[in-house]
Amino acid sequence: MQIAFIGLGHMGAPMAINLHKAGHSVKAFDLSPDACAQVKAQGLQVATSAQDAVQGAEAIVSMLPASAHVEGLYLGSDRAPALLPHIAKGALVIDSSTIAAATSQKVARALDAAGIAFIDAPVSGGTGGAIAGTLTFMVGGTDAHLERARPLLEKMGTNIFHAGSVGAGQTAKICNNMLLGILMAGTSEAIALGVANGLDPTVLSEIMRRSSGGNWALEKYNPYPGVHENAPASKGYAGGFGTDLMLKDLGLSQENATAVKASTPLGGLARAIYAAHSIAGHGGEDFSSVIKMLQKKG
Ligand code: NAD
């Protein structure tokens, strides 16, 4: 299948590479020349623009930072014209970015009016899951559109959930990421407490992993350097899931909670913690670096 892939960052690049390895013809594009060069080195075709990427594409996958990027790409902005008129009627758009459900619905309505199918399909599983092709997809859209997308999603992930109509994938994703933000801050706090008492972080992490505090951070993504060799914490908090992206997601969950009058006090506290961490200069580091603000200095 001819696929356009737009957004080749930490997540998009390995996802596009997996579609390519599965035998699809992938034409990829990113505003960053370095990101384009990285996938070109893996044998993917690189487009000169988003318009070039979608020429002849039966499916378009986008993996962009936030709502404004997705709306700007498909519907246009002050900076760039809309991609929508360049997409073939009957094509399928899969947006895997984590964005506001309302933005997914707005883009879906505009595409639908032009005869183009849309699903929101945000992911969980981190960069490790993107590389291994074991992501979890949370899909919003019709059954028919999901079934069209499924063969592609299966090349990038192992768990595919249908959350509901367009936007529902995004709602599931912000619930998950609100929990992730809280559990990473909580796990960091517990490890920092143990270390302040002289405990070995690896031993303490293993005790908690096998006890009632066990969670995903303790399994795969320990915030303390050296505990998990492949976690961002052991690589100077480079790569992974940026603090500012977590802050964006916690903003989305708090906005949503306000809209539906839900009580999310820990989500609100987590947002404040990551905001302070970002302002302290850690916005570009992996979000597990939040442990730095909870550790005893010296
Ligand atoms: P990233 O910042 O590494 O990559 C985003 C890429 O989009 C960049 O390379 C940027 O140049 C490109 N881009 C922005 N606007 C563009 C445009 N108009 N046209 C083409 N390219 C454009 O971000 P990421 O970590 O890959 O995350 C992408 C999305 O996935 C975010 O919404 C994030 O919240 C979500 N997500 C990330 C992770 C993770 O672990 N990193 C996990 C799950 C979900």
TrEMBL record:
It catalyses: 3-hydroxy-2-methylpropanoate + NAD(+) = 2-methyl-3-oxopropanoate + NADH + H(+). Its EC number is 1.1.1.31. Pathway: Amino-acid degradation; L-valine degradation. Keywords: Branched-chain amino acid catabolism, NAD, Oxidoreductase. One of its GO terms (molecular function) is 3-hydroxyisobutyrate dehydrogenase activity. SUPFAM superfamilies: 6-phosphogluconate dehydrogenase C-terminal domain-like, NAD(P)-binding Rossmann-fold domains. Residues 2-164 form the 6-phosphogluconate dehydrogenase NADP-binding domain. Residues 167-294 form the 3-hydroxyisobutyrate dehydrogenase-like NAD-binding domain. It comes from the Bacteria. Pfam families: NAD_binding_11, NAD_binding_2. Gene3D superfamilies: N-(1-d-carboxylethyl)-l-norvaline Dehydrogenase, domain 2, NAD(P)-binding Rossmann-like Domain. Belongs to the HIBADH-related family. This is 3-hydroxyisobutyrate dehydrogenase. It comes from Diaphorobacter limosus. The gene is mmsB.
